[in-house]
Amino acid sequence: DTAVSQTPKYLVTQMGNDKSIKCEQNLGHDTMYWYKQDSKKFLKIMFSYNNKELIINETVPNRFSPKSPDKAHLNLHINSLELGDSAVYFCASSRGAWDHQETQYFGPGTRLLVL
Amino acid sequence: AQSVTQLDSQVPVFEEAPVELRCNYSSSVSVYLFWYVQYPNQGLQLLLKYLSGSTLVKGINGFEAEFNKSQTSFHLRKPSVHISDTAEYFCAVSSSNTGKLIFGQGTTLQVKP
Q: Which residues does residue B56 pair with via DSSP β-bridges, in sequence order?
């Protein structure tokens, strides 16, 4: 069983389109995250949710909107896609939000290419 | 503000040779330090972490790291690498007042036969 899963694995789309990436974790964790990894492999946090509540919201364009229907799911919706959105997006989860010692468990990534 | 610097973007090494991947951090408060590994086309997985206590931390796959507070470093070492260790390695830092994990730029370890 995959601990943190993401769909789709690959996403190729045109500029201006709207797309969603889904993430699910079966670890029973309370906290989930979205990260963006750029072409130079630099990894930066975008959002974090704890028990469906937004706790981290980095400087990310408003076109990006996370949604957490329950604590096992955190989806990422992107409106009006731009070329610069091309990247690998990773979902992750951890046991707690306020205990920053916790290990984060990462999904396999979604490779987004905007043409 | 916290930051992490990985001093080498690429480290080529021959199989069975020792390796050290360097990581320095800056922070005005106590930190927690992590090393994650990313194999090609996969997500990240934890190698080891330093929270407190002994400064020498042992992780999976024969890796270890040493926390040096005076030098603000957390270098990763392995005495003998295998081809299968070829991957991207990320050093990361968090603390009780940041609420997030801050990653370094990554170091590509290339193990050659």
A: B66
How far B10 CA lies from chain A's nearest CA (Å)?
12
Tens digit of pLDDT for each residue in B59-106? 999 999 999 999 999 999 999 999 999 999 999 998 777 668 899 999
Q: What is the CA radius of gyration of chain A?
A: 13
* Nearest neighbour of A101 by CB, restricted to B32, B36, B98: B32
What is the structure's pLDDT at A1?
A: 63
What is the C-alpha to C-alpha distance for residues B113 and B108, in angstroms, rounded to an integer?
16
A42/chain B closest Cα distance in angstroms: 5
Tell the residue number behind the tokens 């470093």, with chain if given: B73
Of A42, A56, A105, the CB nearest to B99: A56
Please list every residue in chain A whose beta carbon sits closer than 8 Å to the beta carbon of residue B106: 41-43
DSSP lists the bridge partners of residue A64 as A78
